[in-house]
Design goal:
The protein has 576 residues and is an alpha/beta fold. Helices cover 26% and strands 23% of the residues.
C-alpha cells in the first residue's frame, strides 16, 4: 500500500492561507497542529478529513503535528480504541511529532484551576446539576448568579483541594469559571471547569477523582503543547470564546510554575497562545458517521464488528480494500471551507475507483461459473499465455495465465435465449475469449433446466497474435482454466443503507430500518493462480468485475478470500 503522494498543486483553502500568512508575518517559527480524538470509539471517514488536514498542514509547511488523545471522560474510554486510532493514522500515511494525552496534563489543569481561583476568576459551586440548569437561563433569558459565586478565595482554594482529595461524592460540587451569567453565549455563563467523578482512568488510574471539562482541557492542552493553529469542526465555533478565555486567563507562557514540572517528565513544553479555527465537517450520504451510532450497530450485531468492510470506520474501509490514497484524494476533492455540505457517496466511490485504477494490477476471476469446453482442442492441451498486468502502465509487467481445454466463464456471459442487444455467447454464436481467440458455441449440455457445459470450437485463425485475430466480433469475455483455477470465497459488498439520509430519525424510523439487506453476498468462485498468491490487503482489479482486495484477516493462498471494494461503475446512479 502506498502512502498519499505529495500534492501536485499547492492547496489553497482558507486555513492554509491563514497559516501561510502567519508564517510570512513571522508570527510563528514553525506551525504546529494536532489531531485530538477522544478514545471512545473507532475513527470514521469524517475523522480522515481532520487527520489529512492537521497532519497535512504539518507536512506541507515543514511544521509539526501531534496526535493527542482527549481522554478527559474516563468512563467511556478504552485502550483498545487508543491502539486502533494510532494504527489508523499511520495507515493514512502520517506519523505524529509527539504522542500526547490530555491526561498527561491533569496536574497542570489543576494548578491552573487554583490560579484562576486566586485571580478571582473561578469558584467552587455547590449547586446540583439540575440547579445549575435552572440558574443558567436560556437563549432568551439571561442566567442568575450562583449563590456560591462570591465565596472567598481561601474557601474556594480549600474546597477545590478537598474535591481533589476525594472528600465529596460525585456531582456534589464543581469548579466553575466566573465569566458572565448574562452573556448571549451560554457557554460563557460560568461554565464548569472541573467535575467530581470517582472513576479510574485508563492512563492515570486512581490518581484523580476530579476531571476537567472538555473546553477547558482542550484549550489548555493546545497551549501547553505549543499548538499554533487549533483546527476543529464548526460546532465548536460557539465554544471559541471559552477557549480563548481559558488560554488568556491561565496564561501559561507567563506562569511556568503551573507546568514547569512537565519537561522533567519528558514533555518538552513551550506554551503558546493557540488560535482556534473551525471548518465544516465531512458529511456523506448513505452512511452514518457518529461514533455512538456505529457503536450501537456493533453491539446490536447489525454488522460484524468495527472492521466489518461495510462500516464507515477507517478499520472497515481499510478491510474493504480502500487504499489510503483514496481518502487523501477525497479530502482534497472535498476541500476545506466553512460551508456545511453533504457529499454524495458516489464521490467517495469515485475516489476509490480512480486510485485503484492507477494502483491495482489486473487479474481474472469468475464469480458465478459455468463450464466451457473447447472441443477442438486435445484433452491434455495446455498453454501458458502472457497477459499485461495493467492496460495503461507497463511498469506493472506481465504474468502467465494458464489456458487449457476446459474453462470457467461467467454464467452471465451466456444466454440461451438472447435478449436484444446481448453481445456475448449464445447458441451458435461467437465471442472472443480475452487474450485467446474467437470461440463458437456448438452445443449446450443440460441436465433438466441446468446448464452443465457449453461446447465450443476455437477458430485457430483467430488466435491472439495471428492476422485473423482482428476479425470483428462484438463481445469479449474473460475465463479461467478450470484445471488451474483456485476456488475462492468472494464477498460482494454494497452500501450498508438504502436511503441517502439514514442518520435522520423521523416518524419512528431510525437507521436500523434502512439497512440494505443485500449489503453483502458471499459467493464461491474461482481466481487465476497468481491472484491467490497475493498478500493479504493487496488491491486488485478483477477484469470486468470490479476492484477487490485480498481480505486482511481471512485470505490464504490455498484458500483465498476477496472482498469487493467497489464495482467498476456506479450502479446506484439513477436508472436512465
Ligand atoms: P463523533 O461525532 O462521530 O462522535 P467526535 O467529533 O466526537 O465524533 P472526536 O474524537 O472528538 O470525535 O473527534 C476528533 C477530531 O475529529 C475533532 O477535531 C473533530 O472535530 C474531528 N471530526 C470528527 N468528525 C468529523 C467529521 N465528520 N468531519 C471532519 N472532522 C471531524
Ligand atoms: Mg467529540
Amino acid at each position: 500500500m502506498s502512502t498519499p503522494a505529495a500534492p501536485a498543486v499547492e492547496k489553497n483553502d482558507f486555513i492554509r492561507q491563514i497559516v501561510r500568512d502567519d508564517l510570512a508575518a513571522g508570527k510563528h517559527a514553525r506551525v504546529k497542529t494536532r489531531f485530538p480524538p477522544e478514545p471512545n470509539g473507532y475513527l470514521h471517514l469524517g475523522h480522515a478529513k481532520a487527520i489529512c488536514l492537521n497532519f497535512g498542514i504539518g507536512r506541507e509547511f515543514a511544521g509539526l503535528a501531534n496526535l493527542r488523545f482527549d481522554d478527559t471522560n474516563p468512563a467511556k474510554e478504552d485502550p483498545e480504541y487508543v491502539e486502533a486510532i494510532k494504527a489508523d493514522v499511520r495507515w493514512l500515511g502520517f506519523e505524529w511529532s509527539e504522542l500526547r494525552h490530555a491526561s498527561d496534563y491533569f496536574l497542570a489543569f489543576y494548578l491552573a484551576g487554583e490560579k484562576l481561583i486566586r485571580d478571582g476568576k473561578a469558584f467552587v459551586c455547590d449547586l446540583s446539576a439540575e440547579q445549575v440548569r435552572e440558574y443558567r437561563g436560556n437563549l432568551t433569558e439571561s442566567g442568575r448568579d450562583s449563590p456560591f459565586r462570591t465565596r472567598a478565595v481561601e474557601e474556594n482554594l480549600d474546597l477545590f483541594q478537598r474535591m481533589r482529595a476525594g472528600e465529596f461524592p460525585d456531582g456534589a460540587r464543581t469548579l466553575r469559571a466566573k465569566i458572565d451569567m448574562a452573556s448571549g453565549n451560554i457557554n460563557l455563563r460560568d461554565p464548569a471547569l472541573f467535575r467530581i467523578k470517582h472513576v479510574e482512568h485508563q492512563n492515570t488510574g486512581a490518581e484523580w477523582c476530579i476531571y476537567p471539562m472538555y473546553d477547558y482541557a482542550h484549550a489548555l492542552s493546545d497551549a501547553l503543547e505549543g499548538i499554533t493553529h487549533s483546527l476543529c469542526t464548526l460546532e465548536f465555533e460557539d465554544h471559541r470564546p471559552l477557549y480563548d478565555w481559558s488560554v488568556d486567563n491561565v496564561d501559561f507562557p507567563n506562569h511556568p510554575e503551573l507546568w514547569s514540572y512537565l519537561p522533567g517528565r519528558g514533555f518538552p513544553t513551550v506554551p503558546s497562545k493557540p488560535r482556534q479555527i473551525e471548518f465544516s465537517r465531512l458529511n456523506i450520504n448513505y452512511t452514518v458517521m457518529s461514533k455512538r451510532k456505529l457503536l450501537t450497530m456493533v453491539t446490536e450485531g447489525l454488522v460484524n464488528g468495527w472492521d466489518d468492510p461495510r462500516m464507515p470506520t477507517l478499520q472497515g474501509i481499510r478491510r474493504r480494500g480502500c487504499p489510503p490514497a483514496a481518502l487523501q484524494l477525497l479530502a482534497d476533492r472535498v476541500g476545506i471551507s466553512k460551508q456545511n455540505s453533504l457529499i454524495d457517496f458516489s464521490v467517495f466511490e469515485g475516489c476509490i475507483r480512480e486510485t485503484m485504477d492507477a494502483q491495482a494490477p489486473r487479474r481474472m476471476a469468475v464469480v458465478e461459473p459455468v463450464k466451457l469446453v473447447i472441443s477442438n482442442l486435445p484433452e491434455a492441451h495446455e498453454e501458458s499465455l502472457t497477459f499485461n498486468n495493467h492496460p495503461k502502465n507497463e511498469d506493472f509487467g506481465t504474468r502467465s495465465v494458464p489456458f487449457a481445454r476446459e474453462l470457467w466463464i461467467e454464467r452471465e456471459d451466456f444466454m440461451e435465449v438472447p435478449a436484444k442487444g446481448f453481445h456475448r455467447l449464445v447458441p451458435g454464436g461467437e465471442v472472443r475469449l480475452r487474450g485467446v481467440g474467437i470461440v463458437k458455441c456448438i452445443e449446450v449440455v443440460k441436465a433438466g433446466d441446468t446448464i452443465r457445459e457449453l461446447h465450443c470450437t476455437l477458430d485457430p485463425e483467430s488466435r491472439h497474435g495471428l492476422p485473423g485475430a482482428d476479425r470483428k466480433i462484438k463481445g469479449t469475455i474473460h475465463w479461467l482454466s478450470a484445471r488451474h483455477a483456485v476456488p475462492t470465497e468472494i464477498r460482494l459488498y454494497d452500501r450498508l443503507f438504502t436511503v441517502p439520509d439514514p442518520d435522520r430519525d423521523e416518524d419512528g424510523r431510525t437507521y436500523r430500518d434502512c439497512m440494505n439487506p443485500d449489503s453483502v453476498r458471499i459467493v464461491r468462485g474461482y481466481v487465476e493462480p497468481s491472484a491467490a498468491q497475493l498478500a493479504p490487503e493487496s488491491g486488485i482489479q478483477f477484469e470486468r468485475l470490479g476492484y477487490f482486495c485480498a481480505d486482511r484477516h481471512d485470505h490464504r493462498p490455498n484458500a483465498p478470500v476477496f472482498n469487493r471494494t467497489v464495482t467498476l461503475r456506479d450502479s446506484w446512479a439513477k436508472p436512465a
